[in-house]
Amino acid sequence: MSQHLFLPLLLFLLLLSLAWLWHLSWFHHCRPFSKAVALHTAVQRLLKPRSPHDCPACCLAPTLLSAAGSMPVRPWCEVKSRRGAPKRLDTEGFACPNSRCPYSGITDAHVHALVGDGKHGHAERIQTFRCQACRTTFSARHHTPLYRLKTPSHQIAMVLSALAEGLDPSAAERVFGHRQTTIITWLTRAGEHAQILHERSFCHLQLPHLQLDELRTRLRSSTQVLWLWLAIDPLSKIIPVLHLGPRTQISAHTVIHSLRQILAPGCVPLFTSDGLHLYFYAAPGPFWTLATGGSPRAESISVAGSGGADLWSGEKDLPTAQVGAGHPCDAP
Fold first, then answer.
1. What secondary structure does DSSP assign to 18-49, as a single string?
2. Residues 219 and 320 occupy one common structural domain
3. Alpha carbon distances (Å) from 91 to 104, 137, 203
């Protein structure tokens, strides 16, 4: 009786082992094929963007409202009553922060409805403004690094000047007597304000030649390798764009679009690079509207090192010695 039970059990185990071996053999033979398929699907051909719909940065850009469609605002001096005391405080350069106010963002003293509304503060007397149109009151330090800070402004300026000269925040704590977290907060606010000021002032540039490059770097607190993307003018040594990110097509589009916002309208520079193909696919996207209606040569943005010609159409008529001659500032 026991032999009749043992033989079927042994046969069942043998069949189970053969099935398991066949499964392992099939998985081993099919795995390289799956890797090849995955590699083939991962590598896709990048196409040059011909319109804003092909560029990811253009698709993500917000739609700006045209200024022509907005209703003009009448100056407040024409709207208000002629009664009352005349305006004594100069409000030029300040604007109402209320986004629902019709005079929001207008800094012209002859148009907006701002008047003085006294002063506040114990260490320093800070001017307060009031909008007569919406009754909003705000401080003169609104949208500045000194907003709602009780420390005197000259002490904050002294600490920030020392930090700009290279003093460490921990050393500044011992020298000036302020906490390190407070000093870092001041430094962060000043950096954000400086970034806004830089974006508003550093624009409409005329740069005929730009060199595009990327540097491999690693942050101290991160194990991931990052790339520092930069664009530099070889003549004036201006660096209009710096971007820290991975070496991907999205970063290349970000760099080129940042350049488009900084350059003057109609300025199409000559791009030279190290031959990275990501620039070749990202460059024509933001500049496609500038090349419409031109010759076939003008329809493509010149990217030296991308496989195309590195000379503009006007340089073909020059002598060979003059075309090859560089600027004295370009000499190493």
1. HHHHHHHHHHHHHHHHHHHHHHHHH--PPPPP
2. yes
3. 14, 13, 26
In a shared domain, residues 230 and 182: no
The amino acid occupying position 274 is: D
Provide the residue range defining the domain that includes 250. 209-330
Assign residue 230 the CATH number of its domain.
Answer: 3.30.420
Q: Is 303 exposed, middle or buried (0-12, 13-18, 19+ CB in 10 A)?
A: buried
Count of domains forming the chain: 3
- What is the distance between the alpha carbons of residues 2 and 25, in angstroms, rounded to a whole number? 35
How far apart, in whole angstroms, are the C-alpha atoms of residue 269 and residue 295?
17
C-beta of residue 251 within 8 angstroms of C-beta of residue 227: yes
Sign of CA dihedral 253, 258, 263, 269: negative
Angle at 273 between CA 271 and CA 277, to 5 degrees: 105
Read off the pLDDT of residues 202-213 as tens digits, 9 standing for 90 and up.
889 999 999 999
Q: Note the pLDDT tens digit of each residue in 119-149.
A: 998 889 999 999 999 999 999 999 899 999 9
Choose between 84 and 91: higher pLDDT: 91
Give the three-class secondary structure for 281: helix
The residue among 261, 280, 259 whose CA lies nearest residue 269 is 259
Is 274 among the domain residues? yes
Residues 169 and 108 in one domain: no
Residue 131 is inside which H or E element, if any? strand 126-131
**Does one domain contain both 215 and 321?**
yes
User: Does residue 173 lie within any of the structural domains?
Assistant: yes
Quick one: DSSP state of residue 236?
A: T
